[in-house]
Amino acid sequence: MYGKAAISILFLLLLLLIFYSLSSIGTGGDLRSYFFPLRSSSTPFCLINPPPLRVFMYDLPRRFNVGMLNRRSQHQTPVTAQTWPPWPNNSGLKRQHSVEYWMMASLLYQADDATEAVRVSDPGMADAFFVPFFSSLSFNTHGHNMTDPQTRFDHQLQIDLLKLLGESEYWKRSGGRDHVFPLTHPNAFRFLRSELNSSIQIVVDFGRYPKTMSNLSKDVVAPYVHVVDSFVNDYPPDPFESRTTLLFFRGRTFRKDEGIVRVRLAKILAGYDDVHYERSVATGENIKLSTQGMRSSKFCLHPAGDTPSSCRLFDAIVSHCVPVIVSDQIELPFEDELDYNQFSLFFSFKEALEPGYMVDKLRKFPKGKWVEMWTQLKNVSQHFEFQYPPKKEDAVNMLWRQVKHKLPGVNLAAHRSQRLKVPDWWRRRR
Question: What is the pTM of this model?
């Protein structure tokens, strides 16, 4: 008797609970919240905002970094957010290799949650270690060519830096594997680059390096810093028709290695009224002319240079000119997050050098598809902006996220190297 009464009471309570839950749903409640009180109905099980990468940045004398921007200054105390100098407006093409400057700046700026990486003062708390040596600027500053006697200053900086790092217990602990070096100029750190083989290198491509030195498994591909101004007011009624040039290229045509394709393209693309292919050098005036040309063109040609990539690709992206990439060995930044096929076209060397083939394809390219690509370029261009203060999803934050992606493999290699008695034993198996 008592058992039946208890069951009846429980049944009534259950009905009341269901009734109350349904009425709550009607007024914006969520039945799931009664059974999963710690989970919001709009929050997935995974973390929406993962914690930022914790980075320890070495305090180096200014001669290793910003001291090269003002060589008259004798100050050698490490730079701070308060003493951070702006990037000079008259730097010319040095700007395209300035990734090192913007990455360092992002670690000095700690004002809000817009950054993917935060600087920590305790190296024991760090996920990664940033070495703020401006290796690209050092190459561009100390000597005008590879044989200039002034290059001895660049060499000495590399020697001094490696000596300093060799005294760090954290460098020795991982063999430098969790240390990050921006090396975007192909000749950056050229004297002692082999000493950085195990470290995370920020590069623009792998054109001049063997895979034992730089490779996708541990290194990060960065964009060049664009030298043309970003097109911020690109809102024409008909973007396709407003761009009257079919294909645009302006730059050096005599290059080394894969860049020899530029000379052959000059001959193949000659004589077309809607194609602009011009030889020029990068001066302030010519950069302005290139800006105008890209903004008035539907497609911008990006042939390989001395290495598989060049700054021209990223100038085209921020100009919302659909890139036409002719480079068989190019690697692209952020490709695990961005699908370049949505806003770029690719031609092999063989296709591009076939007379009439590329121009015919571009002339027949559907207007609607082009507008989709142009719209996508406007959406993704934020990911190729380097700026201070940094902004969410800009280039430097994308780079730090890429570094974070590399760390599991880096840590695996570091941990295994510490306990293996016979290094790389598996490579010896038949």
Answer: 0.85
